[in-house]
Amino acid sequence: MIMGNDHERRDRVTDVGTVVVLAGGLSHEREVSLRSGRQVAEALRDEGLEVIESDVDSGLVERLDGLPGAVVFPLLHGETGEDGALREVFRLLDVPFVGSDGAACRVAFDKSIATTVVADAGLATPEQVALPHEIFRELGAQALVSALAKRIGFPMMIKPSRSGSALGCTKVATPDELPAAMVAAFAYGSVAVVETFIAGTEVAVTVIDRGDGPVALPAVEIRPDSGIYDYAARYTAGATRFLCPADLPDPVSQRCSEVALTVHRLLGLADLSRTDLIVRPDGVPVFLEVSVAPGMTETSSVPLAIEAAGWGIGETCADLARAAARRGRG
User: What is the rounded CA–CA span in Å between residue 148 and residue 298?
Assistant: First the structure.
């Protein structure tokens, strides 16, 4: 029996070449990316796959050229890894990769665009306004406060349109807090989004396609000790309590899964995504944002969801790499 399992394991390993786990980069989320990369690389090695860990540098193209049959597993967070540009390079080089293509990433990564697409499909989203830095600077904060208060209302959330890990995000309760929050958001990008603060239960729903179609994993409920799921709450061990499955009525959990699957399909995403939601007191899940390269660290929600689904992280990541390899051969 053991010999049979070993034989099956060898067959599964040989159907994918070297997996290049790409992590690091130069975004503000570099350290988080490196942590995600280490976790996935170790899990893939435990499955018997040959793994090379690589940063994004001037030698990357040559490195990939020297690895015929390789598959890239991108774990770059932030603009470099999630705006689609690097994935266009992989396609140009004819190198298969795990995850969504460049066009889908561009839409998903920009909160002002993704929210509009999701809202147009009839899903619940916050009321949102996108403000470029130039407009905010020329018109001035005071001229916009009144209009934003009327349109969005207080409290409101200010966040960069193109950033992750809650960097540059601020909850604003009064008009006096708005200018500083806008400046904080502009530190991470040229466009800030101002949106309604949605009170409720925060959950993250992972969608994974291991080759047989996308599946929503159990929702992870997020309870940060500080009350705000900011950068520190996300990546400091013990700073946030996670419940998986989320403490929600079954019909609400099912609705969260349906929303995440709809977002995944609507935006044309592939292999792996994580949709962040707030469940209002009336049980309606409200879309906040979606990640095409979600964190895989020891404090991230995706590994928790994979474990709750009864899957192994290593076998799941290996299946994703195999699916990418098959696409490359197809």
Answer: 38
276 is known to lie in a ligand binding site? yes
* Phi and psi at residue 124, to the nearest 5°: -75, 130
CATH class of 6-98: alpha beta
Three-state SS letters, 44-102: HHHCCCCEEEECCCCCHHHHHHCCCCCEEEECCCCHHHHCCHHHHHHHHCCCCECCCCH
289 assigned binding-site residue: yes
For the chain, the domains span 6-98, 107-124+199-321, 128-196
Q: Does domain 128-196 fall into CATH 3.30.1490.20?
A: yes
Out of 113-117, 163-167, 210-214, 219-223, least confident range: 163-167
Residue 262 carries which side chain, given as an amino acid letter? T
**Residue 12 near residue 44 (C-beta atoms within 8 A):** no
- Examine the residue annotation and report whether 29 is marked as an active-site residue of this protein: yes
What integer pLDDT is reported at residue 8 of this predicted model?
Answer: 44
Do residues 16 and 325 touch, judged by C-beta distance below 8 A? yes
Q: Active-site residue among 33, 165, 273, 301?
A: 165
> Is 300 a residue of the active site?
yes
